[in-house]
Structure formats: structure tokens, C-alpha cells
Amino acid sequence: MTTHSAAAEQKAIEADIPERKSVVDDFAGYRALRRRVEDMENAGLENPYFQPRDGVSHSVIRRNDKSLVSYSGYNYLGLNGHPAVTAAAKNAIDKYGTSASASRIAAGQIDLHGELERKLANFLGTEDALVFISGYLTNVSVISHLLARPDAVIYDSGAHNSIITGARLSGAKTFTYPNGEWDGLDALLEKERPGFRRGLIVAEGVYSMDGQILDLKRAVETKKRHDLLLMVDEAHSFGIVGPTGRGVCEGAGMPVDSIDVYMGTLSKTLASSGGYIAGDRGLIEYMRYLCPGLIFSVGLSPADTAAAIAALDILEREPHRPRRLRERAKFFRKVARENGLTVGGDEDSPVAPLIVGDDKLAMMLSHNLLERGIEVQPIVRPAVSATTARLRFFLTANHTEEQIQETVPVVARELEKLRRSIA
Predict the structure, then answer these.
(1) Rounded to an integer, what distance in angstroms lies between the CA atom of residue 279 and that of residue 284?
(2) Host H or E run for residue 63
(3) How many CA atoms lie within 13 A of 390 on its CB side?
């Protein structure tokens, strides 16, 4: 009785206390966010974001004691949870502990950092490579350090936020063109090229929102015609594009030096965390000693470094993994067409967006699929425009044809139901 009375009294006291004002209550962006959260709650939809899962990210995951076929993870080659990768990470912890404990230039360098960089450079065919603590940080810090006020960064409408942020922080001029419209970019550069010193085209190997594979030949022609540098973000193409997964240069059959700055992540194909750049020795030396994002940041953890090394070793030994992934991507699009769904991206791309065109519809479709045991995240504003809201399917080598054959008809039926109910 006493406990109940105390609880009731505390509740009454709390009811008399005015709700505490947040420091961001007057921010327009926060007010817009709260409206969208409230709309979602009023529609009876569970917030799909930041939901914890149990266990390793595979084609099947567990959430709230329920098994779900998942299309939301980046475990493209199925190396996350691979016994050799897991063992390498554990062994590294036993030897080096859980942290590099300092920036690498100070005292955070371990043997594994150099080993990973050598293996990445050898795999790509470049002179050297450099590993960063984060893929996002890699783009931001490298672009902002390479360019300055007299220069220009040129990127397309599909550019990742890290590219845009790096360009803005560089202080350089920025030019944007519609994704894939190379003739339009040529016309733009004919007009603007005399107005800046150095220029950097930044493109993505596989575009993370739309799934297109870069037309490297056109990109290289453009960089040469206008005396520019070319940087390619291979976050979603490393280990995927090309017969052995070496990326867009291998896929296009072009020389390695066609790209001046290779960028990629360790968190997708390589089942780890972090980012890297690769290129000639001068570029890497310049970044190793002077790039703020490296010299003022802690070194990559021993476990993450060792995991990436082990995953890269498996990729080199087992080139069938990228091939199987490409087969799954083609199969998914084939089944989608058979079920009347228009899925974006190139046939070989593991990024397969289904554009539904409305934020609320995308949220509802994701929710209904979750109820049917299928996890695929909705992508809505501000990540994409209001008319291009989508469900973004990530295919992996672990997905079976049976899973895809069972998933796609359910997606088609649930989308049709929702469109009829809204019409």
C-alpha cells in the first residue's frame, strides 16, 4: 500500500511539472521531424529506424524473437560472421586489446594497419593505400583536404552526403549535374573550367540510392578533356563490380590509373568498419602526414583491422562470391519484372530501389512487409525527394533464390493493396 501511494504521489507531482523545453524546440528541422513522428504514430506505424536486432546481419535476422528475411544489410558477400573473419578479430583483441588508443601518427599505429593497407593496394593494383576510422569521414576529410578556395568539386545529383559535405568544407566552388548526363557536364565545364585552378570529379562506383553502376569510360573521357582529377567512391562497388570484385576499373576493363583517388569502405564487402583511399604514393604520403581526418583521429581498432584483412583474403581466394552476388541481383530484378514491379539500378547492382513516390506509402509498405516477415527499410525525405520515396533492397550473396521468389510477390501484393486503399 505504501509503495502504491508513493508511486501515485510521485505521478501527481510529475503531472504538475511543466514539460521541459528542449534546446532544439525552436529549430525548424526538429519541428518538422516531430510532425512526421506524430503522423507516423497517428497512423499506427512503428518507427522502423534504430530498431535493434539479435545476432549477425545475414539474409535472415531476428528482431523481438521473430525471424525476418532482411534486405537492409550491407553484408554483400556474406563475410560478416564468417568463422575466419570472426577468429581474426578475436585474435587481434587478444594481442592488441580493443583500441588503438591514440591517433596513428602519435602512438596508435599497429602492424595490422600497414598490412591492411598493403593488401588493399595490392588488390586494387595501386601504389599505396591509407585506412581511416570511418567511411563517411574518409570522403569528408579527403575531399576537403585535397581542394581549396581556388579549386572546384564536381559531383552529380546522386552524390552521397559525405561527398557534398567534403566539397562544402573545402571552400572550393561546387558544380552539380544530373546523374549520368555526361554531355550536359561537358557543356557546363566548357563554360566554367577557366574559372578554377584544380578540379575534382567525384562519382560513385555503385550509387547507394539508385543502384546505377558508374559509366567509367565517360567519366575518364570527361576528366581528360577538361584536365581534372577523378575520385570514385567504391563503397558499394568494391568486392562487387568486376569479375573478381576489384571494382569499376576491372568491370570496365580500364587501366588502374584511370582513377586518381580510389575511395571505399570496410563496412560492407569487408565485414568491418572504417574507410580507405588508394592511389599513387605521393597522394597517400600527403594524406598520411597532413590530412586532419587521419592525424587527429584515433586509429582503426585492432579487431576491425584484422576482420578486414581476413575478409579481403577470403575475397581473393573465393572470386565466386562476387559472381554469386551479381547472379542474385539479376535474379531479383527478373522476378520483380515478372510480378509487375519496376526496380531501379543496373542488372548487376546489389542496390535495388523500388520507388513508390510518397513518404507515407513507403512507410506503410515497409510496415506491412515487416508484419509478413520481410525487413526492408523505407527511404524518405530528406534522404530522397518527396516524389521519390522508396524501399531500398540490398541483395547479398547469402540470399537464396527461394527467399527472393517468396519475397517479391508479397511486395507486389502489399503495394497494390495500399495503392487501392489510397486511391
Answers:
(1) 7
(2) strand 60-63
(3) 22
> What number of other Cβ atoms are within 10 A of residue 162's Cβ?
23
Selected catalytic residue, list 208, 237, 273, 366: 208
Please tell me the distance from the alpha carbon of residue 272 to that of residue 284, in angstroms, as a whole number. Answer: 22
Q: Do residues 197 and 180 make contact, with C-beta atoms less than 8 angstroms apart?
A: no
Q: Which of 82, 268, 367, 399 is catalytic?
A: 268
Residue 277: strand pairing partners: 130, 263
For the question of residue 226 being annotated catalytic, the response is: no
> Cβ(411)–Cβ(72) under 8 Å?
no
Set out the domains of the chain in order of their start, with CATH numbers.
Answer: 43-72+319-422 (3.90.1150.10), 83-317 (3.40.640.10)
User: In terms of Cα–Cα distance, which of 418, 134, 419 is closest to 272?
Assistant: 134
Against a cut of 0.90, is the pTM above it?
A: yes
Which cell numbers in the block locate residue 375? 525487413
Per-residue model confidence as pLDDT tens digits over 112-139: 999 999 999 999 999 999 999 999 999 9
Which three cell numbers, joined as nine digits, stand for 117? 593497407
Per-residue pLDDT at 422: 83
Of 82, 113, 145, 236, the catalytic one is 236
Q: With the C-alpha atoms ordered 86, 313, 125, 75, is the resulting torsion angle positive or negative?
A: negative
Q: Is 90 a catalytic residue?
A: no
140 SS3 class: helix
Per DSSP, the residues of 188-229 read HHHHHGGG-S-EEEEEESB-TTT-PBP-HHHHHHHHHHTT-E
Whether 301 is catalytic:
no
